[in-house]
Amino acid sequence: MRLQTASIFIGFSISVLTTLAGQANAADWQAVEQIKTYAITGKTGIDLYRSIGEKGPQAGVQAIAHTSFKLTWTRKYEVQGTACAITVAKPKLIITYTMPKPANPLPPDVAQNWARFIAGVEKHERVHGGFTKELVQQIQDFSLGLRVENDPDCKRIREVLTKRLGELSKAERARNAEFDRIELSDGGAVHQLILAFVNGP
Prior knowledge:
Elements: E1 9-16, E2 19-20, E3 32-40, H1 45-55, E4 63-80, E5 83-102, H2 108-143, E6 147-148, H3 156-184, H4 189-198
Parallel strand pairs: 1-4, 2-4, 3-5
Antiparallel strand pairs: 4-5, 5-6
Helix pairs in contact: 2-3, 2-4
């Protein structure tokens, strides 16, 4: 059986929380990246792909794989005269890649086909992870040292920060969506990856 088109998607989601206090400097952070797997079954490429369709993560649509992250912030707001400034802005970022994994050993030719396929899927997902790390760095670059005059209660500075975070997050979501659109369109890298996998052993 040969597959001519494919419409399965790779998903992306975010979870953002905020905390206050502590000490940090710009770029003084490193993301934690982890892989979580879900079990699939089959002895051929097409059977494994069907199992992915049945058991894959839900990310708005059925997905092959999924990138999510949890982001928490340590921030310190400091009153300086009548102004308020952010003197500490340190993120803690955990990125999780959810990937399929065969539950049972595969025949040698299928195992080779699978290795190529899953390597391509992981490469795609790690681009999403890279976008996330860039977003977090942009947030830190903007927030650390941010100062708002005539704000002794540190209220206006939070409004300024929230507005900018919304703009950055919107741009990052659009970037992820455009990347998926290109990769999953006919002839795109992920589309070709899927075709090669299901048409292989």
